[in-house]
DNA sequence: AAGGATGGAAACCGATCTGTTTCCAGACTC
DNA sequence: GAGTCTGGAAACAGATCGGTTTCCATCCTT
């Protein structure tokens, strides 16, 4: 454990990993032990375990997003930038510690849509949809909103498949995204004028 | 509670509902109370809670499948029979007690792919894929296996969207399936051009 | 009417749950 | 050096966890 980091940072890091790997039903004792933080400190920093669930999810959100979405202005076409997300998902599914999209996983586990963690999950799923939307607008497709939703569902469906089968996706998610992009006419790099 | 049913049936019924609604972490005390069965009887009928999870999932599987997939020989085209699954999912997502596909939900919660419940979940997801496959073969598409996988992912992605957003799908899953079927050239075989 | 099997109610076990509290070691300021 | 603050270790609380056991009422069979 990193003793340089503050107790709060250590707690958020450990929570982000353990809630994802073991589920949100992991005990506070195990969590604090992994973080090297006392329960007293934890309950001084967070009102409840539920709040820690939400805040840890919010803290891993930007990093997860950055790991999936290519940087702006990298010279890629919208199609390539969209497909890059599915390539990253494919790579993640090959690793042994893949338990699906952490937001979807948490939402499924919490059941209650009003739980603060569910609210955070909803927020970050919307941001992925918004990323797709921006690319689709740049690609000038007919129905960018509808396509962005479909790509998000393709992402979560592929993620769910990897979880249920406990296997790597081996490109099936990428091919699904390609099929949807083909159908929407998001094709040749040069033809789709992506001015910025 | 139905006193006609055997303790085993009452347990499987209650487990199928409560594990889905509250998650697999619900206690066996609450479960037995809901089923009107003593813990003693429960542990005589099932070796462990984990076994009850698996068996209750296996017991709801056929019913869930039958609720989604149209009967054979109903005069519908393969395309209509495939879309009927997504229409049913859309209808389910409108109800307040929708927590996603029970197999996907259980697999996400259990995390461990070797858990007997995960094995059952995998089995029934494969049966949905097999249903799609049969229809796609009948429709003579180019890559029926790949398309069946894509439709299954579309199903689970749509289901995940309804869970994360805690909202009805309002047709977005149906439209995604239509887009995939259109791209694969699955029209009504006997009836030419069918507009939507 | 007697005997055996079924199965519910509830006590019990040790472990773990979320959350609170006490105590004390170390680092800081003044 | 005295006082203050942070934060870890650990006991504690009451509830619940999965699982076992005892006891007893109700059946069915004969």
TrEMBL record, chains A, B:
Pfam family, one: TetR_N
InterPro entries (UniProt xref): Homeodomain-like_sf (IPR009057), HTH_TetR (IPR001647), Tet_transcr_reg_TetR-rel_C_sf (IPR036271)
Residues of the HTH tetR-type domain: 5-64
DNA-binding region positions on the chain: 27-46
Keyword annotations: DNA-binding, Transcription, Transcription regulation
PANTHER family reported for this sequence: HTH-TYPE TRANSCRIPTIONAL REGULATOR YJDC, TRANSCRIPTIONAL REGULATORY PROTEIN
Protein's UniProt name: TetR/AcrR family transcriptional regulator
Natural source organism: Kribbella koreensis
Lineage, top ranks: Bacteria, Bacillati, Actinomycetota, Actinomycetes, Propionibacteriales
């Amino acid at each position: 454990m990193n003793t340089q980091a503050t107790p709060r940072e250590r707690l958020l890091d450990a929570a982000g990993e353990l809630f994802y790997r073991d589920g949100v039903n992991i005990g506070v004792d195990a969590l604090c032990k992994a973080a090297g933080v006392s329960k007293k400190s934890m309950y001084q920093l967070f009102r409840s375990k539920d709040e820690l669930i939400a805040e840890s999810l919010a803290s891993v959100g930007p990093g997860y997003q950055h790991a999936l979405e290519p940087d702006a202005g990298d010279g890629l076409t919208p199609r390539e930038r969209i497909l890059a997300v599915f390539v990253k998902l494919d790579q993640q599914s090959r690793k042994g510690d893949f338990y699906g999209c952490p937001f979807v996983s948490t939402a499924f586990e919490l059941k209650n849509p009003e739980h603060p963690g569910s609210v955070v999950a909803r927020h970050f799923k919307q941001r992925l949809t918004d990323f797709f939307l921006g690319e689709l607008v740049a690609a000038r497709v007919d129905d960018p909103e509808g396509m962005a939703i479909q790509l998000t569902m393709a992402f979560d469906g592929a993620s769910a498949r990897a979880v249920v089968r406990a296997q790597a996706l081996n490109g099936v998610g990428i091919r699904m995204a390609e099929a949807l992009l083909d159908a929407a006419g998001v094709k040749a790099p040069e033809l789709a004028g992506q001015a910025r």
